[in-house]
Amino acid sequence: MPSSAHSSTGSSPWQDKLVEACQDFQIPAPVFQIVSDRRGGRTAWSSRVTVHGSVHNARYWYDGKNLNNAKEDAAEVAYTWLNGSNPSSPSTSKGGW
User: Fold this and answer.
1) Fewest beta carbons less than 10 Å away: which of 22, 49, 76, 81?
2) Mean pLDDT throughout 10-27?
3) pLDDT, mean over the chain
4) Is the dihedral of CA 10, 69, 51, 92 positive or negative?
5) Is 63 helix (H, G, I), strand (E, B) or coil?
């Protein structure tokens, strides 16, 4: 049986991978934020996640019933970034700033 932490929100493999990667790198846990954009008579939803001082936006916008997909999208972007850099090194983690 799935853990109770995931039963109400569905599966979240990218979020789980991101949390584990942050633990491995010994950096603070990711912080997710849900964002919305009013589009005509509807609202589109997306997510962003802050990891080690860097903000990563989801690539797509979603219907309100799919907020976990928005968080998964942002988590995948952040996970890919995190594994392509060394967060313990400020010169690579904050590269172009």
Assistant:
1) 81
2) 94
3) 84
4) positive
5) coil
DSSP state of 8: T
Q: Find the length of the chain.
A: 97
Write down the pTM of the prediction. Answer: 0.76
Helix 13-25 and helix 67-83, axial crossing angle in degrees, nearest 10: 30
**CB 18, CB 79: distance < 8 Å:** yes
- Tokens, residue 79: 């996970």
Quote the pLDDT of residue 11.
79
Q: DSSP readout, 35-59?
A: EEEEETTEEEEEEEEEETTEEEE-S
Q: What are φ and ψ of residue 17, in 5° steps?
A: -60, -40
| Spatial CB neighbours of 56, under 8 Å, sequence gap ≥ 6 | 48, 49, 50, 74, 77, 78, 81
For residue 88, the model assigns a pLDDT of 54
